Amino acid sequence: MNTTDKLERIQQALDTLSVHETDCRLCPRECGVNRKKEAKGFCQSGNQAYVSHTLLHYGEEPVLSGHSQKNTEKTEIPGQLAGSGTIFFSGCNLKCLHCQNYQLSWLNNGTQTADEELAMRMLELQEKGALNINLVSPTHLLLPILKALRIAYAEGLHLPLVYNSNAYEKVEVIKYLEGIIDIYLPDLKYFSPELASRYSGAPDYFLHANQVIQEMYCQQPFLHLSEENVATQGLIIRHLALPGQTADSSAVLGWIAHNLSPYVCLSLMSQYHPCHKAPREILRGLSSEEYGAVRAKADELGFETMFLQPEPFSSEDHLIPDFDLESPFKWD
Questions:
Q1: In this structure, what CATH number is given to the domain that contains residue 37?
Q2: Measuring CA to CA, how many Å separate 181 from each of 10, 77, 169, 210?
């Protein structure tokens, strides 16, 4: 889609969704707060974006970060180390107890950022050679993001947009992103309402997430790669396997295979590391047997395009960033 068409879509989305500035029901929490008066609901966010870090990120899936590495026994994806142009937003509408980015989701580390400045950060990432603009936790800040995109596209932004979310969204909102978002990167966390309630205070998580991911699939069903093997469009569904919860992981994978397609691109993550308020039963890493069982289920279901991680991660290899640092990741 060309820039003119994207700008039209962004304006249409803003015209419809702007009602949430004074009565915010952007996500299933439906707090109903007036953001124009800086009232803050569950996500603790006002009417402007709060940004923690803007950087070239080398730790995403290789088709996003451009990093040559073998991520699956089936496929080796070559590419250049270029980096995903990642914007880490503060606040969250889900707040998982074990969140590895708790400094952002729970502690709200970040700086209030005007729409114009956010647009300039996107353009700066493009100038640095970013392969895409990767919006991390965008759900609760969708309105200022759209306003910034309107400015950035008018100033020459042309990179694919990655919508990197927890999937706790409202399907009617995601429908307005058709033609705007190029790559959906949802994390389908839970199948069980009990687990979603215990770990994220959202027993209705899967009720919403399954509808949202089906809509994402309708918009961008399959992964499209450039000649350099960099993603330009598509859907990558992430799932983080949790200790002791292989049955729930199997249910998540079964739902994807039977309700979408086993040809969907899947990212199976073994990197769980207990953080913040993680309950006692998950105060440990994932075992190699547990991750192996999840991988075996994915193979049994016929998934063909998968990104895999080491099994298991050691405590020294975990990918937990420290957002109190100027460079929060180990590879920076």
A1: 3.20.20
A2: 10, 23, 15, 18
In angstroms, rounded to a whole number, what is the distance separating the alpha carbons of residues 327 and 332? 6
The β-bridge partners of 51 are 89, 111
Residue 277, in any domain of the structure:
no
The answer to the question of residue 60 being in a domain is yes
CA distance 232 to 82: 14
Q: Cα 193–198–203 angle (5° rounding)? A: 30
| Separation CA 85–CA 68 (nearest Å) | 17
Question: Is residue 275 a contact partner of residue 282, using CB atoms and an 8 Å limit?
Answer: no
List pLDDT tens digits, range 222-275.
899 999 999 999 999 999 999 999 999 999 999 999 999 999 999 999 999 999
pTM for the complete prediction? 0.94
- Give the whole-angstrom CA distance, residue 281 versus residue 203: 19
